[in-house]
Amino acid sequence: MQLMRVASAFSEHDCVYVTTVKGCDRDAGGGRLHLVTDANRWERFKLVRLAMKMLLLVLRERPHVVVSTGAAPGYFALRFGKLVGARTVWLDSVANVEKLSMSGEMVGQYADLWLTQWPHLARPEGPYYEGAVL
Hints:
By secondary structure, this protein is of the alpha/beta class. It has helices at residues 2-6, 44-61, 71-83, 102-107; strands at 16-19, 32-35, 65-68, 87-91, 113-116, 128-129. The protein has one domain: Glycogen Phosphorylase B (Rossmann fold, 3-Layer(aba) Sandwich). Strands 3-4-5-6 form a four-stranded parallel sheet, with helices on one face. The protein has a two-stranded parallel sheet with strand order 1-2. Helix 2 (44-61) packs across helix 3 (71-83).
């Protein structure tokens, strides 16, 4: 949902979206959409399967830019995107009010641009606050 709020910024480009939510194809604005199963640190087998799926997607699509609003699929997309030379943006979820997401903390150092939607979570070394999506 949050990524779709900034999707108009990419309207001139060939976009590929990856989601864990069925039925989002109407929101993809004509871009290709891939559905993946979500996973978290407590679901190790699903996490490995997700990582493999994201690796295959990144290798198949060869993105120039990877933009994510968070969670495990975005973490893997960003990390694998860097391997194929993509520029990367991590936009930590607006839901993370008190502290940054675990994925954001883990991936921030690898992102070319690391953003938070809450000014009090910004730090000089990143993430940076440039405004909120919602």
